[in-house]
Amino acid sequence: MDRMLRGILFGLGACAAWGLTFVIPGLMTGASPIEITIGRYFIFGLISSFIFLKEFLRHKPTYSWRIWAKAFQLSIVSTLIYYVSLIFALRYSSPPLTAMIQGISPVVIAFYANWKTKEVSFKHLMLPSLLITIGLVIINIPYLEETPSLTSYSIGLLFNLSALSAWSWFVFANSKFLNDHPDVKSNNWVNLIGLMTMIWVIALSAILLSISDFRIEFTKYLAFTDLLWKFLVGSLVLGVISSWLAIFLWNKASLNLPVSLAGQLTIFQTIFGVTFIYIVNQSFPSLLEGFGIILMFLAIAYAIKSTPTKKILRD
Q: Does residue 313 fall inside a structural domain?
């Protein structure tokens, strides 16, 4: 299979897994944003620890403290900062508004990555970036008025910008690390990030338990109720599919695609997210929304066609 096609398929799989984060938290009724975050990343850290231990006993890989430190840094940015910001953005603003702002990340990533790596001419990024932006606006025009108040909109906007910045930085930094460190297998890298995630999950839980104003209400999960069922299933989906599997697939995509193209490919996270919202709401996109989605597909098609394939990347 062609390397670029392989990378695109890996990227689409990762974006589909990430797209679930737009709807799953909303289905976990009764759970606070902090509880959802801890539940998701505890599962992520747990499965990563198990797989890493199995790999360690078999091959005994060793990594320098700098690699562990980088894994911890990426973990904090991509999980704690990004996801907490995303959950609060969804709570304080409408999901379509959040999807639109987060959907700008492909444009931000593409320009930032190309500024750093000089992979393609900036003129090749202008048209797809413009199409993505127009498509996002068209899709969300009917829903932007759903924000309940100016205060809620302002708070949601701040959290949206925080999530956008964290995610854009993570995509570029993660791809750069993998290509700069061929000694670190992409399969193991997701487990290192997961292990570091487990550390801050435990530390954050301990801190919150010691602060009465932010105390997590664990007692409400002691009885096997509908609340517990939703929390467990939601945490498993977010931890296994939207965290471990998504990062695993994205690492594979990052090694088969130029960073600028990979960045633009993340628009499918928004497309999948919006699609899942339609499914949950049992509705269909309007003609205007469908036109916006088509524009984004055209943007990615143009980006793929105009991206050079001469760069050889490792497995």
A: no
For the entire predicted model, the pTM comes to: 0.80
Q: Which of 187, 202, 252 is nearest to 55 (CA)?
A: 187
Distances (CA, A) of 152 to 38, 93, 158, 293: 24, 6, 10, 27
Condensed to tens digits (0 to 9), the pLDDT of residues 169-198 reads: 888 889 889 888 888 888 889 999 999 999
What's at 38, amino acid-wise? I
Range of the domain at 14: 3-306
Number of domain units in the chain:
1
pLDDT in tens, 199-226: 888 887 787 777 655 555 666 666 677 8
- Assess if residue 80 is contained within a domain: yes
Q: Burial letters for 191-212: b for 16+ Cβ neighbours within 10 Å, e otherwise? A: bbbbbbbbebbeebbeebeeee
Q: Taking the CA of residue 274 as centre, how many other CA atoms within 13 Å lie in the half-sphere pointing to its CB?
A: 27
Identify whether 311 is part of a domain: no
Q: 22 with 273: CB under 8 angstroms?
A: yes
Q: Is 314 part of any domain?
A: no
Output b/e per residue, 10-40; b: 16+ Cβ within 10 A: bbbbbbbbbbbbbbbbeebeebebbbbbbbb
